[in-house]
Amino acid sequence: MNAKIILLPGDGIGPEVVAEAVRVLSAVATHGGHNLKFTERLMGGCSIDRYGVALTDEVLADCQASDAVFLGAVGGPKWDDPQAKVRPEQGLLALRKGLKVFANLRPVKVRSPLIDVSPLKRNRIEGVDILVVRELTGGLYFAQPKERSITPEGYERAVDTLEYYDYEVRRVADIAFRLASDRRKKVTSVDKANILESSRLWRQVTTAVAADYPGITLEHLLVDTASMRLLIAPRQFDVIVTDNMFGDILTDEAAVLAGSMGMLPSASLGASGPGLYEPIHGSAPDIAGKGIANPLATILSGAMLLRYSLKLNAEAEAIERAVDRTLEKGFRTADLLTAGERAVSTREMTEQVLHELE
Ligand code: IPM
Ligand code: MG
User: Which residues line ligand 1 (CB under 6 A)?
Assistant: First the structure.
């Protein structure tokens, strides 16, 4: 198989973790006789420095013409001025929108060697395997107006709009139900329907979609309740489907179950066209350039790329098994340390995964 993959390493630890994950993808491709052509482009703060915008039209066009886009992370203190007109995050949002990747899959798996890394009790989190499907191109992140003004009384006023269309809810719910069919056949839809009109639409549409999937149980939870249940009874969840903002917040919370943000991969998919793959963690400027970042979230995002964009399921599973074996052998980056272990570097962690792949 031939595939064109655009790499957007971005800022902070992004370039370090993407470089390592590419080594793993290349190893798998070479072994299977696949030809993956990687092309690196700028997006985020690095693009602002060079072109004055976080994502140029050329780079977006390259991404649209690819088979998959593989992203590191964007942002950092250098571009954090709240007054700034251009921000690294704008590139990420423009990319998600430009690729029309409305469904963001964020698997949250508690891997048994890492149970004690989580501050939560072992008996609560053992066996947790959740797939969060976050709506990614609508809601509070994108709806207009978004504005600032000064009222006649002299108050500063800021507006964000929370808007959803039925088709936006339907298409993401449909993906959630399809994915649940291959799992434990339960979908939990998370909203705030006791308060928000958009959530009442969300609930109505997810309920209607459920009628097409008679084998799957649909449960509705309010987001406040869901955030608590994620910590006290996380095993009750199989697939969670929720809006853009709630999904952003709940997946950071869920990362605590997995032990570290450094463990969570993601895949963003649309109806057709290239998928976007990225770790859910940020650019971690505090540890950038030190070679100590955890590459596993990005390596696991690479596995998702193989599975969803290239249909290389066996290869994806091989990477996931190699990651599990590496952890079982006790290799830990700094974010995964409990008492008394030695941390390995980003590079060493990847070497071990490559070793386990063979
Ligand atoms: C994420 C991140 C992004 C988001 C930021 C960096 C814009 O937090 O992917 O979860 O809010 O979507
Ligand atoms: Mg986030």
Answer: 89, 92, 248, 280
Residue 34, beta-bridge partner list: none
In a domain, 106, yes or no: no
* Residues 102 and 168 sit within 8 Å (Cβ to Cβ): yes
Closest CA to 117 of 330, 348, 271, 352: 330
Mutation to probe ligand 1, out of 92, 106, 135, 252 (largest number of atoms < 8 A from CB): 92
pLDDT > 90? residue 82: no
Q: Give the CATH number, domain containing residue 208.
A: 3.40.718.10
In this structure, the answer to whether residues 252 and 322 fall within a common structural domain is no
With pLDDT > 90 as the criterion, what percentage of the chain qualifies?
Answer: 98
CA distances to 118, 183, 325 from 124, rounded to whole Å, are: 11, 20, 23
CA distance 251 to 254: 5
Report which protein residue has its CA nearest ligand 1's atom 8: 248
pTM, rounded to two decimals: 0.97
Q: Ligand 1 center to residue 39 CA distance, Å?
A: 24
